[in-house]
Amino acid sequence: MSDMRIDVVTIFPEYLEPLNVSLVGKARARGQLDVHLHDLRSWTTDIHRTVDDTPYGGGPGMVMKPEPWGAALDAVLAAGPEGEVPTLVVPTPSGRRFTQDLAQDLAARPWLAFAPARYEGIDRRVIEEAATRMPVVEASIGDYVLAGGEVAVLVMVEAIARLLPGVLGNAESHRDDSFAPGAMADLLEGPVYTKPAEWRGREVPEILLSGHHGKIAQWRREQAFARTHANRPDLVARWQRESFTKKEREALSVLGLAWDEAEGRFRSVAEPVEE
Ligand code: 97T
């Protein structure tokens, strides 16, 4: 038995060809991941294989019709193990954010079904009716608009598949990832280097060649703090003072980050408090 079954219903199955490549492709080849692609148009009944129609209430664009989606989801449910239901994941800019936490949550489920929409989205009744039969998660991969949900499915499946047991090298493979629960929660990974030790006149930071594992870990942590401060002030605002050792708080103060008692958050000392 595979670790996870994934069904995807789409009008562009060929858009999901990348699932045959690299990490996800290998997980499938090894039998760890069982992916089933379905063409939504196979559940249409008219000669034109119509999947969309004009929106009630007017407005631009087209909306995906409920009947093909209803029949497709019925068929997906019937295709899986008796008595089990998938978690339905619907990519949409209106959904909750797809984060590492959500990827972890979904990676623990044995069966996922994805419903990527084209056009302006799927008739709302499809989502509502599905939610009476299975868990439904509407999720967005970021604050931008795509032409359809297929690329979002690729993003989500890759983020989920690499968390499945045995898909990456070993149990420690995820520990140092940006956003990994634990020491890397709300933290971005710092820079990485490999051989040669000097390239185009640029040297690898000496500490990394020193063999002092404790000092290297501390340096990496400081680099992670600096990067997060520079690129993601929203993450800094979530940091709790208690999560840091005394040494780490010193490193933060060197970066100009001090705990603001009144605000209850770390604040750049150069940054004025808003009135
Ligand atoms: O923009 C979209 C269109 C269709 C389905 C999903 C999306 C989207 O998902 N995350 C961001 C945008």
From TrEMBL:
Transmembrane region(s): none
Keywords assigned by UniProt, alphabetized: Cytoplasm, Methyltransferase, S-adenosyl-L-methionine, Transferase, tRNA processing
Subcellular location: Cytoplasm
GO cellular component: cytosol
Family: Belongs to the RNA methyltransferase TrmD family.
A GO molecular-function annotation: tRNA (guanine(37)-N1)-methyltransferase activity
Organism superkingdom: Bacteria
Function: Specifically methylates guanosine-37 in various tRNAs.
Domain tRNA methyltransferase TRMD/TRM10-type residue range list: 4-237
Catalysis: reaction(s): guanosine(37) in tRNA + S-adenosyl-L-methionine = N(1)-methylguanosine(37) in tRNA + S-adenosyl-L-homocysteine + H(+)
Pfam short name (any one): tRNA_m1G_MT
GO biological process, one term: tRNA N1-guanine methylation
Gene name per UniProt: trmD
Subunit structure: Homodimer.
Residues reported to bind S-adenosyl-L-methionine: 141-146
Protein name according to UniProt: tRNA (guanine-N(1)-)-methyltransferase
Species for this entry: Kitasatospora phosalacinea
